[in-house]
Amino acid sequence: MKKILIRAGANPYEQKTAFDLMKADYIGGNVGNLIFAHSLFRNLTTDDTVLEADGYRASASQADQINETYAGFVIPLADAFRGDFENNLSQLTLLVKKLTIPVYLIGVGIKAPIQSKSEDLHFSYDDTVKEFIKAILEKSSIVGIRGEMTARYLTNLGFKEGTDHMVIGCPSMYTYGENLKIREIAKDKGSELLLSTNRSKSAPSPVLKYIHRLHEAFEKASFVPQGWDEFKLMYTGVPTFKIGSYPSTMKDIAYESGNATFFTSAVRWITHMRGMDFSFGTKLHGNITATIAGTPSITIPIDARMKELADYHNLTRMTPQEIIENQGEFLFGLMEKVDIHSAEKTQVRNYENFIHFLEKNNLAYTHQNETNYMDTPMIGHTDNQIMERK
Question: What sequence ranges are listed for the domain Polysaccharide pyruvyl transferase (predicted)?
Answer without folding.
Answer: 90-301
